[in-house]
Amino acid sequence: MYEYYANWYQAIFIRRSRRQYNGQPLPENIIYHLPIFCENLNNIIKGSRVVFVNTDTENVFRGIIGSYGKIKGSPAYAAFIGDMADPNVQEKTGYLGESFILEATYQSLSTCWVGGFFNYQVVKEHIKLHNKEQVLAVTPIGYTSNNYSVMERVTSGMVSGHKRKSLDKLCLNYTPQKWPKWVNNSLSTARLAPSAMNRQPWRFAVEDDSITVSVDKFFPSIIVSPRLDCGIAMLHLEIGAYQKGITGKWEYLKHPEVARFWRNQI
Asked: In whole angstroms, what is the distance from residue 199 CA to residue 159 CA?
């Protein structure tokens, strides 16, 4: 996916969760691009997949407000699906789902991570699930005005925006003066990842050639697993490293650790 990373790095800084859409249909080029993109995305990681659904979303989000605010007017959505038999299903789904979110953002589309507060039965009518698969989250897709609605302003303090904890609160061994540039950029980029209720459940530990992502012990799995949030942060971290010329690979770990990013040796 490296060919997308430069674009997604830009998207990270402009992405915002949006809930009020103007109903404008998606253009043909987007309707053509997104299913092909999903197909390519789903070949990257086993145990999770993304499905683009080009249909009116009124029934998907009908009457659902929850912590996200009322979602209205989106002409399409995407479902983030995980195989519950995979022990790393949550982080894999977060990683792939955020890949879709950033690509949609780069394509000038608005989105919003929604976990739990959607009509699961309606989504199941649109998508064929296999074996032990579950829809772990969805996102509306569409266009929004430049102005935020009153509801969006009210909920933005809880969910949206880039109000983030400082890195000294997120890093278990905070010594930025000793870190190489790629580590500082990786963590600064991961810090901007979205999470349910903006809870930011990830914690980072830096070693010579790796960064470990863990779940903070104070965040239980309520509706949305904190490991899914950590999967989102994992993608951001990897994109931040790539921006500084570093590639690597992920090693999945056991709770409360989530995964370790190993820098490829030059």
From this structure: 8
Tokens of 68: 């996200």
Average of per-residue pLDDT values in the chain: 91
Whole-number Å distance between alpha carbons of 120 and 60: 8
Task: Report the C-alpha gap between 132 and 60 in whole angstroms.
Answer: 22
**Percent above pLDDT 90 for the chain:** 82
257-263 and 48-53: which strand pairing?
unpaired
The reply to whether 167-263 shares the fold of 2-156 is yes
For the domain with range 2-156, which CATH number is right: 3.90.1150.10, 3.40.50.2300, 3.50.50.60, 3.40.109.10? 3.40.109.10
Distances (CA, A) of 243 to 5, 68, 102, 149, 192: 8, 31, 15, 34, 15
pLDDT-flagged residues of the chain (< 70): 63-69, 147-162, 219-222, 266
Edge-to-edge strands, sheet with 76-83: 48-53, 76-83, 133-141
